[in-house]
Amino acid sequence: MTERYSEIDQVIAYIHQHIDEPISLSQLASHLAYSPYHFTRIFKERMGLSPLYYVSSLRLQKAKDLLLRTNLSVRDIGLEIGQQSLGTFTTRFTERVGMTPTDFRNSTLEASSEFRSLHNLKDLCTSHSDNNHYGRIEGTIQSTIPFDGVILIGLFPKPIPEGLPLHGTLLFSLGDFCFTGVQPGTYYLMATSVSWGMQATDILLPHTTLRTRSREPIVVQSCSDVPHQQVTLHVPRLDDPPILISLPLLMSNFLNRTMQHSNR
Question: Fewer CB within 10 Å, N or C, the chain?
Fold first, then answer.
């Protein structure tokens, strides 16, 4: 299937190749000989994000890599991705990844522990329903290739998996899913898979995990049904937004909810 505004692929490739350099809106627009206004409009229609927000997302992904793969200080990593203020870098990283840069750097052992706990839980886990006073979003998730692991799936306010999802859960197999208690609003469905054989660093830096996202927003209204969602996990594509939210944090939240339900 040909994507609408396929010329945006050229810009996405350019951004990836020059992510270490200053990138301006006018520079990106001129790459296609478009006006900044027209370029921003079609980029957002194609990607769901503004061009510079997409650039900042890739730079935060780079910060995650640098935190785990280098000994650079948090301040130097902020400077490396163009953040002159340590406070601003820490705030933005925390909002979009779910923990501070320092906590993320130190989370490898915790990630391994959470993943082992999930593996031990997979044969015992049963699904739990949320508050059912509001809307309901049901769907089916498939995959283009087989895998053995878990699927993290959530509803986000933007078409990028950053920050804690407004609703989220974990699946131990492909098939049906359901979110209940969804208040009226606009949501984007995002999911990724983690194979049982993955190491902690691969989970914290999920560059190769299968993923999927709803291209169109899911609108929940108080008195109408939401269409059944059919999504398919696929290998990463160049135009997929980076997965910024910490996957071990989502695993931890799922385990905590499961423990709370089992103690009732």
Answer: N
Distance CA 58, CA 9 (A): 15
**Residues counted in the chain:** 264
- Alpha carbons 118 and 114: distance in angstroms, whole number: 6
Specify burial of residue 185 (Cβ count, 10 A radius: 0-12, 13-18, 19+): middle
Span 114-124, pLDDT tens digits: 888 888 877 65
Query: And the tokens for 105?
Result: 């750097």
Question: Which residues share a beta bridge with 187?
Answer: 218
Planar angle of CA 179, 184, 186, nearest 5 degrees: 85
Tokens of 94: 């925390």
Element (H, E) at 97: helix 86-97
Tokens of 192: 């990724």
Rg (CA), the chain: 19
